[in-house]
Amino acid sequence: MADVVIRAENLGKKFIIGHKAERDGLLRDAISTGARSLLRKGADLLKGKPLNAGDTFEEFWALSDVNFEIKRGELVSIIGRNGAGKTTLLKILSRITEPTTGRVEINGRVNSLLEVGTGFHPELSGRENIFLNGAILGMSQSEMRRRFDEIVEFSGVEKFIDTPVKRYSVGMYVRLAFAVAAHLEAEILVVDEVLAVGDAEFQARCLNRMSEVAGSGRTVLFVSHNFAAVTALTKRSIVLQGGRLTFDGSVDAGLAHYTSTLNKIGPDRHWGRGKHATLVSAELLDPQGKPSDRYTPGTPLCLRVVVETTGMPGMSIEVNLRDQHNLPIAFYSSGGFNQVSLPTQAGRYECTLSLDAYYLAAGDYGIDLHTSHTNIMTDQKIDSAVRFHVDACSPDGIAFDFRQDLGTGHLAMRLTAPLEFAPVAATEAPGEPQSVRESG
Amino acid sequence: MSETGHRSGTHLILEAGRADRQYWQDIWRYRGLLYILAWRDVAVRYKQTVVGIAWAFIRPFLTMVVFTVVFGHVAKLPTTNDVPYAIVVIGGLLPWTLFSSVLGEAASSVLSNANLISKVYFPRMIVPLATVLVVLIDFAVSLSILAGVMIWYGIAPGWQILLLPVFVVLALLASLGPAIWASAIVVKYRDFRFVIPFVLQFGLYLSPVGFQTTVVPERWRLLYSLNPMVGIIDGFRWSIIGGESPIYLPGFVLSLVVVAFFLWLGIYTFRRIERGFADLV
Questions:
Q1: Domains delineated in chain A
Q2: B43 and chain A in contact, CB less than 8 A
């Protein structure tokens, strides 16, 4: 069909990753492994193979067997966890890297936006960087000149346009960078998570601009963790999981599928290791002390955490509660709030964090766990270590169900004293408040 | 049927190991980027310096003075027909500096533009080519030194000077091959980042920069000409001082062959490694 602009068949991308074997630090061993690795690298050089650091090698498929078709004018979001292969897919589509297997057919010019401010040079002025960045993104000089004023206006940094960008604040830098990107014109636009920058007002402007682009009949592929943006901008979504395409369909169904994949990852997942303290497992407990993935509003939020420590003093456990859009809503730190550290005797410990009883709105939640040193240096960070669901939230047992997706918040506020209305005599006629009159 | 698809005319197939037939066309299409990258490097180079672009003048001038003193006055190397030694030196120094700057700057160019390469598509050869443009600007500045020295000694060039651009182009081609090769190989094996400054340092003494080729014994001349810069520097001097500095023809032809070989090797290697650049940088 002529209307298909991107067709991917059996797409796969392989990386070779090296692992270092455990060493016991003997000089003799270091010399012998060093010599062996030198020989191996020398042989690689002669054979023209790329070098890899490490002693053992493993093939890692960042993408495998991915098939899809995208038609002209479609707005598609690609969602998935970190490391699911989203960026690799975008890099293949934008010709930055080659697929290992399979093929992609593309009809039309692809412009990709994997980062804002690619190639910005700190020594150059804002004006110069607009032209540089534009050329790098594939705009022609005449196109740049035509849109220059528009870009400057969008960025809101007119005053500093001839100042080197190294003197810009982070916010100004990002605004300018996004302003150029937002004026990129392409038949097929490929956009990675670039909206997660700037303040709320600027983000809203960016979203508007993106939906203008999307509305003008272009084909857009869009990666984002911002569910609101995904729902607003795209109609169809592709879900990647561990390098495989696991869902292709409407956005709402895609988001639901994605959320369900998050839930499936249980405590048996291997979390890797921290430097001093390692989280081994964590689970939510119900009021009877049994592991559960359901939380009943108004009961203590109990987490059982197994942690290993090297005995480093001042290690603390931190908890970050997140809503279904992955926005943080609550935080706890054993060191910061209670001055409680992990034991200074090395070993594996189990503890139960019994947190206050909250009336959490119905919906999905995730908990990130961190271990940190003196509350500053994060030692290990596990995103979505625990996922749980609140079936219904009806404080005080009334039939009204307070849900997250109402958009009014996550916590049902409760009264500590009965709500009573006492009659008050009307003393003043309605009109302008006194204070305003005085200031005017 | 979809007319827009045909109008845009870009049908692309991405596959493992597929050589892109539109590569050279693409380089032409992206020439705007080539200019702007070169412009960026020039614009940035002399920022926050006091004398600015004058550095392009000062460096070769001081080198010329030092070489004239060392080779001409201390070592007392001969020149044909008593041409001032400064002219011999500058005639060798200009093409050599062109060669060594192109090779030295281009070698690290792909690595230092890693942020672009991992985020945006463009024909990667644009990057080393852009550094060539930058070096050419410096070269143009140092040509003024040559003019100045010739006026100082009151030497008028012959008709041979008209062929000077030919030798400049040859010097460029000679440097382009190794430069493109190095810029690609450095991405894969960073060892070459340390090797290339060495090669350039030795090359300065292995090439007839501070002396004339006539100093080299007759029976070694052909072997000596395996260094492509030998023929080119000779030609460069010939076009400045004419008959006073003869060209050794068999050696010159050999230099050309070596230049062509390196050019082929450079482009071939670059095209082969280029596909993996984004995964390697």
A1: 62-263 (3.40.50.300), 277-406 (2.70.50.60)
A2: yes
